[in-house]
Design goal:
single chain, 136 residues, alpha+beta, VC0802-like, six-stranded antiparallel sheet, 4 helices, ACT-like_dom_sf, CASTOR_ACT_dom
């Protein structure tokens, strides 16, 4: 399957799906190898520390604190890493409904983490976005 770069096609085909687990963003010290047993969904090394995206239950079990609980919504379309505008379209649509969006692009798909209490509304907003005629 070829990755899609055309914005209108990406939006029309994104088919957002809410994932079942609850996630948290945490910051820890040390190396990623120190945390592999927690099976992080994602990690990013920043100057201030290592950020991990973990299932909430795993963070709780490990005694790692966090500030909020998030739901993951995956755009199931195979988006190209060189596509322009999908992240902006997702973020803008959610912002219009006062929903924060933490977007992570992976090789095949884009994923947005929204506050758990806004997950159903966010999913509806993204589904509506994919049904709207594209201005592109």
């Amino acid at each position: 399957m070829n990755a899609i770069t055309d914005l209108a096609q990406l939006i029309a085909s994104m088919k957002p799906e809410r994932q079942p687990a609850d996630y948290v963003f945490v910051t820890v010290t040390g190396d990623i190898a120190d945390y592999l047993t927690l099976n992080p969904l994602a990690c990013f090394q920043e100057a201030e520390g290592l950020t991990l995206i973990l299932e909430q239950t795993k963070a709780d079990h490990a005694g790692i604190g966090y500030e909020g609980v998030f739901s993951q919504i995956t755009m199931t379309v195979h988006s190209s890493l060189e596509a322009v505008g999908l992240t902006a379209a997702i973020s803008n649509a959610l912002a219009q409904h006062n929903i924060s969006a933490n977007v992570v692009a992976a090789y095949f798909h884009d994923h947005v983490f929204v506050p758990k209490e806004n997950a159903e509304q966010a999913l509806q907003v993204l589904q509506q976005l994919s049904r709207e005629p594209s201005p592109c």
